[in-house]
Every structure is written in structure tokens, then in C-alpha cells.
Amino acid sequence: MRRAVELAARGLGRTSPNPVVGCVVLDADGRQVGEGYHQRAGGPHAEVHALRAAGERARGGTAYVTLEPCNHTGRTGPCAQALIEAGIARVHYAVGDPNPQATGGGATLRAAGVPAEQGLLAEEAEQVNAAWLTSVRRGRPHVTWKYAASLDGRVAAKDGSSRWITSAESRADVHRLRAEADAVVVGSGTLRADDPHLAVRGIPDAVQPLRVAVDTSATALRPGARILDGAAPTLVAVAEDADTRAIEAAAPDAEVVRLPRAEHGLSVEALLDALFARDVRSVLLEGGPALAGSFAAAGAVDRVVGYLAPVLLGSGPAALADAGISTLADALRLRTTQWERVGTDLRITAVPLTAAEAAATAQKEH
User: Fold this and answer.
1) Bridge partners, 336 (sequence order)
2) Cα–Cα distance between 66 and 120 in angstroms, integer?
3) What is the gyration radius of the CA atoms in the chain, in angstroms?
4) What confidence score (pLDDT) does residue 265 get?
5) In sequence order, which residues have a C-beta less than 8 Å from that of residue 80 and are 6 or more positions away?
6) CA separation for the pair 2, 18 (Å, rounded)
7) Catalytic residue among 35, 47, 68, 286
8) Per residue in 168-191, pLDDT tens?
9) Which of 78, 153, 154, 287 fits as disulfide partner to 316, beta carbons 3.0 to 4.6 Å?
10) 3-state DSSP call for residue 235?
11) Cα–Cα distance between 90 and 115 in angstroms, integer?
12) pTM of the full structure
């Protein structure tokens, strides 16, 4: 199953609006004879790739799948039936399928006399498929907030300079995050200060994410901005009442979407709805402190990836601006899932505590 999770990760950034799935097939003697992963939306599912590789050796064998085999016919046939027809004798799947249109594959297998057990390495499989699972369960894209900061939490110096706080290795790692995302989002502050490009570089065959510029008043995006080149598609989000003539003149190929205003900037919920409607299931938030604060205040941060450099700045903007948190009791509590050295920096990955974890933490504090 761990190998199946590794395979599933190969599909990140390539399968939306479908999940990433990995599958490994063993023969009747327990030898691996086939493996596969879902490579693109509309293409064969992981189980089909693995069964094709295994051929007749799959008969009497065992299949390990990261997500419950689908039970419906869409652009491809039901994987539960494919496993039955291949003569698979037992199936282990890590996570049940929450999609009401596709769930039930486990029951179909069991009804056909094929034992199908759920739960093996479920946490690892959930993590690799977090974007799709979030989109099904919450009806919006999964959001990863990425930031790079000094050890004292500053994302720029007092004079606004920020290139480069972190190491070259960390900056290269960010391109991996971009390649795994369906969309990369920045706000007007970042557009003005950094003129970001946001396309993936240095990763062969990467599918370029949608570049999203949140320019509420339609005043930050300038002619010749790097985000407007042809390296990747671009979407510009503006307020419903914004004058977009300058943007339309500067970027005739960029799509412009009008969204309702919020207290600070645009409605985060409306932005995520607009992206979801465009089959975006994973968002990498690379915007500055203000945009990150708006997402945090809206409860729309599902994962945090922070790159901390061994640098002290003493002043300058903090990584996170107003997030609607006025007291320690309202703090967004996180659980660290990974920490790793990248170049000279420390990369920390964390996710919000579940309701049960937050309750347990509050009880300990009291």
C-alpha cells in the first residue's frame, strides 16, 4: 500500500477534477506483478493500468488501492467490476470514496465474493489525496498557504526587499508545489512588489497551473507584467464594480472574473467557487500577508508550508496579516505533519487541528 501511495503522488497536478489514485497488484504467491496510477482526467484509472501490467497473473491475486475502487461508469468503466473480471481474490483500499456517484465499489466487490477491506495506511492515502477529498467533502478547492520568512517571521525587510530570504533549494522546492497544484494565487500587494511569474520551472513535463491574480480594484496589474506572458493560463479576479479597461488592454488573452467585495478585498468564498467551477481542486496560495490573512479569516487554509531561513530581520511585514484573530483563544491551531531541511532552511508543513484535536488541546490548556 505504501508503494501505491507513492504511485498516486505522481498524478498530483494532472488529474483534476479527478482524484489521484495508486494501485499495486500481487499474484497468488504474493509477488508484485503490476502497478499503476491515475495519470490524467478521462484516462484509465490506476486499477486498469495495474491490471493491464499484471495480465493473467492477477487471477487469484491481491490488489492494493489508495481509494475505494469506483462503482460507476463515466468516461471510463467501473474499476470494481474490472477487478472482479480480472479474477482478483482480495482487495485492500485505504480510503472510502466520499463521492456519492462513485462510492459502493467495496460493497460490489464483497457481493461478488471478493473480500474488500478498508483502512490500510488511510492517513498516508488521505494526505496524498487531500485536494480531491476536500473538494468532495467541502465543495471547494483545497488550499495550501506557502510562505517564506526569516526566523523571526518576517517576509520582507523594513524597506520591502525580500529577494532572497530563503535558499535556492527552497525556491526550487516551491516549483514542486506549483507543479502539484491546479492554481497559484497571489494578491495585488505581491503583484506590485514582486511582479511574479508563477509558472513552473525546472520540472520536466509539468502541467502549468492556472495563474490567478487577485486585483480587487484592477489597478495593480501593469502592461508587461510577467504573469501575463504565455507561459501558463492567467485568470484575473476583480471586484464587480472595477474598471477593467486597462487590464483588458494589457492582457487581452487573460480571463477576467468579477466577484463580490468583502470587508478586505474580494470574497474568498466567491473566489474559491469560481475556481471550483473551472475544475480547480488544489490551490497554492503564494500571496502576501494580507491575502493570506483573508483566507485564514475565511477558514480556507487547509495546509501551511513555511520555509524558515536562518536570518533575522527585526522589522518588516510579518508572514500573516489580520486573520480575524484577536485573542489567543481564537488562534488557528495547527498540527505539524512534517519538518525537513531544504538547503539552509527549514520547511515545516502543518494542517489545522480537527475539531476533536482542538477540543483535546483546549482541555489540556485548562
Assistant:
1) 350
2) 9
3) 22
4) 87
5) 69, 70, 71, 104, 105, 106, 108, 109
6) 21
7) 47
8) 999 999 999 999 999 999 999 999
9) 154
10) strand
11) 5
12) 0.91
List of residues 6+ apart from 364 with CB closer than 8 A: none
CA dist., res. 269 & res. 298, Å (int): 7
Q: Nearest-CA neighbor of 352 among 138, 136, 148? A: 138
SS3 12: coil
Q: Which cell numbers hold the place of 80? A: 470494481
Asked if residue 35 lies in contact with residue 8, where contact means CB atoms within 8 angstroms, the answer is no
Other Cβ atoms less than 10 A from the Cβ of 311: the count is 16
Position 362 scores a pLDDT of 66
Q: Residue written as cell 489545522?
A: 352
Cell of 81: 467490476
| Residue 2 dihedral angles phi and psi, to the nearest 5° | -65, -35
Tell me the CA end-to-end span of the chain in Å, nearest whole number.
40
Q: Amino acid letter at 168?
A: A
For residue 326, the model assigns a pLDDT of 83
Cα separations in angstroms, 158 against 78, 161, 315:
58, 7, 6
Residue 56 designated active-site: no
- Which residues on neighbouring strands pair with residue 347, listed in sequence order? 307, 340
Residue 101 has pLDDT above 90, yes or no: no
The separation between CA 351 and the C-alpha centre of its own chain, rounded to angstroms, equals 12
Residue 208's SS3 state is coil
Residues 355 and 213: their CA atoms lie apart, in Å, by: 32
Residue with cell string 487541528: 353
